[in-house]
Write the structure tokens for this entry.
Amino acid sequence: MYQIRFLTVAPQEKGSVKEEPISEIQTRRMWQFDWALNKLDNSVRKTGRIPKALLLKIFHEICKTGCPGSNQTLLLLRSCGALLPEVLSPERTELAHMIWDKMKELGAVYDTSHYNALLKVYLQNEHKFSPMEFLARMEEANVQPNRVTYQRLIAAYCNEGDIEGASKILGFMKNKDLPITEAVFSSLVKGHARSGDMKSAENILSVMRMAGVEPGPDTYLSLLNVYAEKGDAGSIKKTLEEVEKTEGYLMDRILMQVIFSLAKAGYPQYIEDIKERIRFERELIPDAMNLCLTLVTHGFEDISFHILKSFNHLSRDNTDQGSFFLQHCVNRDMPMNKLKQFCNELKEAKMHSAPLPFILRCALEANKPALAIDVMKMMKEEGLPLRPHYSWPLLVGFQKEKNLKGIFEVLKVMHELGVELDTETYTDYVFKNFATSETARTQLKKNDCLFESVGLSVAEIRYEAANGRLNNVLSLLSSASTPPIDIRQFRNSLILGFKSSNDVHLWSKITELLYKDERYCLTPPGPTEAVGYFLYHLIDSMSDSEVQAKEERLRQYFHQLKKMNIVIPTTHYSGICRLLDSSQVPELIKDARLLSLKSLSTDNIPESAKSDVSALEKKLEKRKAENQPITDVLKQLIHALCEEENMQKALEVKAKYEPDMVVGGYAALINLCCRHDNVEEAMNLKEKVFPKNSPVALDTGKYVALVEVLGKHGRLEDAINILTEMREKDVPISGKTVASFFRILNAAAMRGEVETVNRLHETIVNLGLAETAVLHSPLITVHLEKDDMPAALEALVNCYKKYGKILQLHNIYCRLIEKGDADLLQKVSDFISREYGDMMALYDLFFAFLQTGKYREARKVIETPGLRAHSGRLQWFAKKCISSNQMETLEHLVELTQNLFECDRDEMYYCLLQLCEKNGDWGKAEAVWTKIQEENVVPREKTLTLLADILEKNGQVVPFEVPKVRYEDTRSLSASNVEERKIRLLCKKNNAKEAYNIFLKMQGKNEFHYRSYGTLIKALLTQNCLEEAMEVKHAAETHIKGFTLNSAASSLLIISQVRRDYLKDAMAVLKGMLDSGLLPTRPAVIALTQTLAEKGDLKNLQALKNMLEDITKSIGVSASLIANAIALAHTKNNDLDAAVEYLEPLLISGAQNPDQAVRNISYLLRKVSEEGLEPALEKFGVMAERLASQFGIYRPVTDLFLQYVSADRVDDARSLIQRCGALVEEKSTLVSFMARSASRPGQAKKIETLLELIPEHLDMEIAYCYLVRCYELDGDVASVKAVYEKTKAENIQLHELSLKSLAAFLKKVGEPVPFTEPPETFRFYVEKWRKRRLEAS
Amino acid sequence: MAAASAVRAVGRRSRRLFDIFVADIPWTVSSKELKEYFSQFGSVQRCQLPFDKDTGFHRRYCWIKFSTPQDVQNVFQKDSHILEGAKV
């Protein structure tokens, strides 16, 4: 951990001197190195070896980054020796050379350490080379040899028995005054021995002692090895006993080396004796494994196996031993009979439960088909089961080689082995090699490996279907030779095929076959069910846009199916209807209805007759006479009459056919009566058909109509009852409903009915039907209407106290001023000053004086010393003037604010011009132009453009140069101008569809202004009309050269495209935006990123990342987002390793690099958890814990913990906290988690869980504040009270804000408040709370 | 539209509730064997055992979909599951 800190700090310091990017690259390399080091280190520490594949992977990885660091190179080089026991020595040396050269090519600079590492590798690999040449090469490269270099060079000479050479190097060492160490003496032992002079070799030990160096393990090993090489078992024994006597120990590791030397020298007979001295304990397993591997590598598999069996006593239940051995044997191409023998023995010794399947796997993994086939034959002999999927790796291998012969061979062998290959084998691994299943069939036949089976037939159908060749599917299905197959076997492929084909005829033909040919409906429910299910899944699998695009084809399809007399069960039919509805093609539902089982029995009345009252009447009478059911016709008649607004007649019909009336008819009637103010009849019908206690509810609109008419007729109690019923029956409340409520309340207010307003309002709010500020204002309006100012004022204050809203203030002020009621005026002013400060009170007064034309008083107010411009308030009033066309007032506003401190004059004049534009008043506009100059204001381009526009439109000369950005289209007063304004106006009113229609009508005749296109596109996108918007954009691009959308519209476009899955287009739009210097909005970027991640689209994510690199900060997107998204994409691609390898280093560097830091992984965790990707969650969990334990980075593990809490996995959370207790230190993360939880209803459980798990680490005041808030949001009175009781019992001080909101909540639900409500305003406590929270986190 | 698709997603998620996740599956076992094994706990609707198309081996984990939550309970009632000698 410290090392990394050091490594990252250093380059940053350098970076500040040089240019910035360098430090970036360097830190990057640091963490990469770190990651590689960790991986290799782990491998060495755990197993004492490195798998060759891992080494190569890291090597390629480092190559890819391009600039290898000195450490990395060293790391790779050092790994090419004894750490690769599975590789033969010459190959290891070759690998080392390859790395050496490649790294040099990439610009690595070698120093002494690298040369020494290479020497070590040479020694370990017993590589023959000339030490002098090596030295010369070092000198050439201007690298100084050091003591280690010389020691190793001596060892190199000694390996060859070249004492003379060794002496030469020794001379160098002496010249340089370098100490002679044990390593040198050990080498000399070997050197003398290998030169044939055993005497001198043995003598070295006493020479050492004389030189003051005690012989250690190295020396003894050297001596033992040379005895072993000579096969001198007696001396070995003597030495061992001697050492044991003098030193009292001998390492088992050394003994194992001696075993290897004996094996190599050809004296296996002495091994047993050495082996007996080794204590085979658990700790020794890695070393013994390496010995076994090395022995196998060198061809001594029997000796190796012998040693392996020594571990028999260490076996544990259910764990297989010797797998590594078998695997290595397979890798080294051991013959089958040898493998067989090992397998049998391992099985007999009960060391391995299934050795044969294991070596089969090894053979498959190593892509050794011949061996694999032999093993399978063996398995068959032994009576072990053989399964189709055993052949898959072989087939994949041949497929990659494009080796058809191999594939045929496998098929034949599997057949001979009696394995019937299944559908998956054919679809996924055989047919892929052929263009069609037909060519596959011919080829298989030609090569004698066509074995008919159900699996094969299913595969053929699937393959053809999935590739969209429906005609082939049809012929396969109708072929007499096709065996019975359940439709479910190929349903999904068939759906794919249907989707990629547009041939409705084939669709129908195939469906008919499935329906009528009993071969394909084997399961009991029969064809109706099966085909219904198929249709449902077909529609379900199509995206909204697909369904929309294929609407017409689907319609034809349904009709053709109908002609074929195909019906489907009602349940599936209604499922399909739901899907069609959600795909926004409700018209198709009608067509789908043709297929419903039920629809066959009922008659279908032609649509045209629907609204024809007289025809319906006749029909009704006829039916009645024929004694046929009349309910449907009756309902239609009632509806038709309602449409004609013929209440009288409708009621008559109702009375006449009362017994046959259905609910729908009554509902329509009620609505009709409401519209016609017939409150009596409406209520009668309602009470009769929809009594309060009946479960059937009317729809929202009809309830509202009832409330309205009841209110109008003063039947207040009834209205309140209806409202209560709405609540009880959970009638959905939309924005439109709220607007209706307001209309009803306001109407009552206008009538001056105080009680009606108050009671209805109270009911609506208390029942929680709706709560928006605007709903409260009739409470005040009603008093204004009655001109009861004291009451209005009281209502104002009450409203503020109850709902925290100030409403109708301006109107109250104006009225008071008009009436000249100074007392009350003072009272209001005081109230506002107290709650909002003097400034707000002054502005209100100012606007009121302006409004009432008392300009002198207004001036006095606005000239109050110290008053500053408040652009929001000024804008509000200016807009109000514009919309109510009060030119005089607006002019006064502009004039009076002339000397107001910090007032944006240009903005004020712009408002004035807007009103001029609205009125087409060019004279006034010109006067404004003069005023602007008079006041010496520099107008913005926007203002000038507007002014020019007004003058031009009214046929005036523009007295100044129009800024360049102006529209190219300057034709004034053309027809298009009128239409264009209409379009803009409609857009403003959110009526994009209407605007688009005008646009369509105008298209081709005239071109529009630049701005109008943008406005229209934006409005269309807001209403999710992507196609239309694109149409307009296209038109704009053809008419205006270089037309680009502005940032907001482009961002909306991106969001719409993402919603429709047009990701490629969205990427293109984003790129275009960035290229033209526009910034996308945060939601657009987030939507795009998350969707790309969902799709696992790494390529585009990477591209996105590059695009956003410099601007993430400016758009407020955190660096974590993209990192999380990329990791998620890897996960989606089932490549968890890549996800971790990508994310982990980022998190490590993120913890030290505050800019652009990737810290949290909560999004990633939430996603994988929500989608049940358990292995992913587990993997990231392990990573998070590793980061915590090894690097002290706690944020990821905190995120994991909180994810567990969110997913209500309390036990997981608990055990995590036990392992990584320090995560509780991430206080701010915990606090924001709670804050987030308290922002939406239904999340109290999360905070409860936190309180349960880590009570001692939470700030109780904060936690309980949020908990209370949660329950308040949930409207859960009981829990709110329980929490309050708990805090009291546990003596937890609740924050005043909590108490305040608690009091408000309790009052609202009509509960007593068991404490004194804090006296200050909400706002006051919110501020206080904010400060408190900052402190806590 | 957004609401409708959300409902579909929720529907899918709630259907998932009868899913169990099985890890550490030995390579010798295919979905057929898994289905057979888990059928003793209830009716197995579907067994999803992803294979790596690049190697021909499966990924050693799978999802089993049961018809009812009770089946899932049955599976969890057994402490450990041993398939072909390997604990899963």
Q: What stands out?
A: Chain B is about 35% helix and 25% strand.
